[in-house]
Amino acid sequence: MSKVFIIGAAGRVGRRLIKQLVGRGHEAIALHRNPEQGSELAALGATSVKGNLLELDPVQMARLMSGVDAVVFTAGAGGAGMDLTNAIDGRGLELAVAATIQAGVRRFILVSAFPDALRGGPVSEGFENYIAVKKRADAHLVGTGLDWVIVRPGTLLDDTGSGKIRADVAIPYGEVSRDDVAATLAELIDQPNVSRVIIELTQGDTPVSDAVRRLAQERCSP
């Protein structure tokens, strides 16, 4: 069993991830901002921990994640404006990385963004900023000595997951259900040999466990 600290646990991917982790026998430690979220996350099987990503410093967050085996960062501003994007997706990620290092945790999984997202239509200044912030966050994490994995899902859907994905370092752009993103994140906890790799993720034909196992085998190959 692993203890997994989830930043962004109250979000649509985060809640699904809690269910996945608990179902696999792991302990999900869910960071949340609002008091009412604590009882909701506990009902999903998580251990809820109150804390605001925008108010904590690295030392405070490190105390909250003390003793965990892995951190999953799936927080995001969700289109709430450039200032919040900069604060949560940008500075929030940097804070979480600093706290992870301070806490002595090695494994860090980041949910990022597919670089080709929405390139087929009009792109706003806010969206361009979002992609730029995500890229800087990715680069920041890659520059650390952590045991990191970056997952870049395509357009996120609330449809029921199929349990089948396409996952590799570079794939054509597409859609993917939040269910299948959460399943992939949980599988990355179960398969720690996948390390220091950026994974693009869409719906596909390969069962999640097989897709992640193939990535692990490729990473271990000479």
UniProtKB/TrEMBL annotation:
InterPro entries to which the protein is assigned, alphabetical: NAD(P)-bd_dom, NAD(P)-bd_dom_sf
Pfam families, alphabetized: NAD_binding_10
Ranges of residues in domain NAD(P)-binding: 8-192
Source domain of life: Bacteria
Protein name as catalogued: NAD(P)H-binding
Source organism of the structure: Pseudomonas prosekii
